[in-house]
Design brief:
InterPro entries: A/G_cyclase (IPR001054), Nucleotide_cyclase (IPR029787). The protein has helices at residues 4-14, 22-30, 36-46, 51-56, 74-78, 83-103, 129-147, 181-190, and strands at residues 62-71, 107-112, 115-120, 154-168, 175-179, 197-201, 215-218, 227-232, 236-237, 247-256. By secondary structure, the protein is of the alpha+beta class. The protein has one domain: Nucleotide cyclase, GGDEF domain (Alpha-Beta Plaits), CATH 3.30.70. Strands 1, 2, 3, 4, 5, 6, 7, 8, 9 and 10 form a 10-stranded mixed beta sheet that branches. β7 and β8 form a beta hairpin. It is globular and about 55 Å long. The two termini are 36 Å apart.
Length: 257
């Protein structure tokens, strides 16, 4: 995840609809160097919900939905931009994408230039796995439909799995990092994702969800309204290092209305 100070700044700038408040994050930031028991006592003293500490301090496993969003052919599109032009280009991209992530209850796990990893699940959301799939699906579609046909078209990798939050105690850099095999699988999937598509492993529960069907999708929370038509591909064979599956599918926005 971004360090806690950056995460607080992102939530303050863009707003958020998940259940972890900036007050909780600020308390974590202030007490980061203390023991888990001391942090819990501080939370209790302030009347803050301590559930977040089960994951951030006690390393409970979290079953998450991941989205890896990045601009298609980013290097090619930006190779002739000056440093100031590139900064403006990325700032605009963040201003479009991050509010959509937060509108659907997701949280920013990592920002790597044009690459943004969003997570849906504990401790930020307490919904069932089906609901988490739905929120991640709507978030990905919103982003694809909004940016399709612009200079910031994206590709999205969708994956899920169990992870732990690792507490990075490096001096002056307080953060909780998501660790797990599913994150490696997400990175590999992103490498073969397609433009204007949600790409996923063919064994994913996502493949059988009602919302993962051919049909139109209208973007939410944006005016004027935009709609896109999504088609599911047949199975595509891939060879991804360190991944046990050899087939993926793409759920592609074919046109806007």
């Amino acid at each position: 995840m971004p360090n806690i100070t950056q995460l607080i700044a992102l939530k303050e700038k863009y707003g958020s609809k998940n259940s972890v408040s900036n007050l909780q994050l600020k308390s974590l930031n202030e007490n980061f160097r203390f023991s888990a028991d001391q942090i819990k006592n501080s939370f209790s003293y302030q009347g803050l919900d301590t559930r977040i500490l089960n994951f951030f301090e006690s390393q409970a496993s979290a079953d998450l939905l991941f989205l890896f969003i990045d601009i298609t052919a980013f290097s090619q599109k930006c190779k002739n931009l000056t440093n100031s032009q590139l900064a403006i280009y990325l700032d605009k991209y963040y201003d479009l994408v991050i509010p959509i992530i937060y509108a659907h209850g997701g949280e920013v796990e990592k920002i790597m230039g044009d690459g943004i990893i969003a997570i849906f699940g504990q401790p930020f959301l307490t919904d069932s796995k089906d609901v988490l799939f739905s929120k991640a699906d709507k978030c990905a579609k919103d982003i694809i439909v909004l940016l399709r046909g612009t200079e910031r078209e994206v590709k999205v990798a969708l994956h899920d799995g169990s992870v732990m939050y690792y507490k990075n105690k490096t001096l002056n850099y307080p953060e909780y990092t998501v660790i797990g095999k599913s994150l490696t699988e997400l990175y590999r999937l992103e490498s073969v994702a397609m433009n204007n598509s949600i790409s996923y492993y063919h064994v994913s529960q996502y493949d059988n969800k009602e919302f993962c069907k051919e049909g139109a999708f209208c973007i939410t929370n944006h005016s004027p309204s935009k709609c896109g038509y999504f088609n599911k591909s047949s199975i595509v064979q891939v060879n991804l290092q360190g991944v046990e599956w050899s087939f993926i599918k793409h759920y592609t926005c074919t046109y806007n209305t």
